[in-house]
Design a protein that fits this description.
Mean pLDDT: 89
Oligomer: single chain
Bound molecules: adenosine-5'-triphosphate, magnesium ion
Strand order of the largest sheet: 2-1-5-4-3
Order of helices and strands: HHEEHEEEHHHEHEEHEEHEE
């Protein structure tokens, strides 16, 4: 069922029930009020007549004269009195032809209960039992409450009208307002439909009013911002990667093309092959890094997750780095070691964690004259901090925010080789392990990278 219809039905039903309750109770109270009123009036009349009739030698003509001259809002008044034998001893009627035939059971009932209210035709009547020392009478006072019933009829019509129009207005109003309320949803859906990967720059119109729809539109717009950012990043990455891949390939093909143009000496061929070999190695390394990048992207699904002892990963570093470049040295410094081994464990992927730390350590060696990195490990408050320090060329302050972007290399690195992928790969891996990397550097003095990882969880 459409939401608009659901809101309309809910709203309409609530108002319908409220109206029903209000109109119903107003009518009920008016109805009982009128009945009580007529019972009281008829009873009073019956009591006074019974008292007068009970007096010895009371002249009934006088009573009839009183009855006929009594002004009452009630119509067709009738009065009858019966003695204890059930014989009619007095009768009066506004209309002389109007006689009441009262069931004997009612008289009996009145004698038992004292007072009985009943209807006879369109009239209402009260049978009242009067006893005193001289007489035992049942007086029946009946009348037609024309004004009261008319008023009640009028009230019923007014209530019925209010109830019906109120309900119709509630349903129609509910339908109209729910339509207005839900209109922004349609607008948002239409806006979203027009957004695709090609025009991600488009945004949802969020409106002027500060309401939930505006909040929804703004949240969706923020999501679109993030999507656009990551699309752009991906696009830049692909462009850079293709450029990096095509450079050595172009170099290889042009070198081979030139050497094939004519016969050359063996020495010359060796030199070309040497150069091509270097380009191929470069390509191989780049492909390897790109593969690692793909592995560290996305989520942890498909990765082998296990408890990793960070101190063991660090202990293996000096040998690994030295194997990659014999000039590079790593000095380890483990201060403030915890007594509990669990504080040194990180849940994650050993290869990726070791790759991330190695990239930063390799940078420290690569970008310092002494090719030396100092690696420190610290644990505190359930967190592991790995600090990598060097006394190298440092990074200018203005460049610090770019160095984690893929393919970004600082100009001063000059002839030092690299793709500009090491740090962004390291950051991806650390993020994957719910950690963070910070950097501080002074150009000409050195750089300090800090990797903070949550211990014992993933
Ligand atoms: N310890 C450091 N000292 C000085 N500059 C650094 C240091 N670490 C990183 N950089 C700068 O940050 C840039 C990005 O580093 P990153 O490791 O991502 O790339 P790279 O080392 O150039 O290449 P590779 O992909 O081979 O690691 C480097 O080019 C370098 O300019
Ligand atoms: Mg590097």
């Amino acid at each position: 069922m459409p939401v608009r219809l659901r809101i309309t039905l809910l709203f309409g039903s609530i108002v319908f029930l409220i109206l029903l309750l209000v109109c119903g109770s107003v009518y009920y109270f008016s109805y009982t009020e009128r009945t009580n009123d007529i019972i009281l009036r008829l009873t009073n009349r019956a009591i006074t007549r019974a008292r007068l009739l009970g007096q010895p030698n009371f002249d009934q003509h006088v009573l009839r004269a009183i009855d006929s001259s009594t002004m009452m809002a009630l119509k067709d008044k009738t009065l009858q009195a019966y003695n204890y034998l059930g014989q009619k001893v007095y009768t009066y009627s506004d209309e002389p032809s109007d006689t009441l035939t009262v069931d004997k059971r009612i008289l009996e009932d009145a004698r038992v209960k004292g007072r009985v209210y009943f209807r006879i035709g369109k009239k209402e009547a009260v049978a009242y039992h009067h006893t005193d020392r001289v007489s035992r009478l049942v007086v029946i006072a009946a009348a037609y409450d024309e004004t009261g019933l008319e008023k009640l009829q009028q009230l019923r019509n007014i209530l019925l009208f209010s109830f019906l129009t109120g309900s119709i207005i509630a349903f129609a109003g509910g339908y109209f307002f729910s339509g207005r309320l839900l209109r922004p949803i349609k607008q948002i859906a239409d806006d979203i439909n027009e957004i695709s990967a090609q025009n991600l720059a488009r945004r949802i119109h969020s409106g002027e009013v500060h309401d939930e729809w505006q909040y929804l539109s703004e949240t969706l717009n923020q999501l679109l911002n993030r999507l656009q950012e990551s699309f752009d990043m991906q696009r830049r990455f692909i462009a850079n990667a293709s450029h990096e891949l095509s450079t050595p390939l172009t170099s290889i093909s042009s070198q081979l093309e030139v050497s094939l143009q004519k016969d050359r000496e063996a020495e010359r061929y060796r030199a070309v092959m040497q150069s091509v070999y270097q380009d191929v190695r470069h390509l191989g390394k780049l492909t390897q890094t790109l593969l690692e990048f793909a592995q560290a992207s996305g989520n942890t699904g498909g990765l082998e997750i296990q408890p990793v002892r960070i101190d063991e990963v660090l202990l293996a570093l000096p040998a690994e780095v030295n194997k990659l470049d014999p000039d590079y040295t790593v000095a380890l410094s483990f201060g403030n070691m915890p007594s509990d081994d669990n504080a040194l464990i990180v849940f994650g992927n050993t290869e990726l964690l070791s790759l991330a730390i190695r990239n930063i350590v390799m940078n420290a060696c690569k970008y310092s004259d002494d090719h030396k990195a100092i690696v420190m490990l610290d644990t505190a408050d359930g967190r592991l901090t790995i600090a990598v320090e060097d006394k190298g060329i440092g990074i200018p302050h203005s460049e610090l925010r770019y160095i984690f972007q893929p393919f970004y290399r600082v100009n001063h690195t000059g002839s030092t080789g690299g793709f500009g992928l090491g740090l962004s790969l390291a950051r991806r891996i650390i993020k994957l392990h719910k950690g963070e990397i910070t950097v501080s550097s002074r150009p000409g003095e050195g750089t300090l990278f800090r990797i903070i990882l949550p211990a014992g969880q993933f």
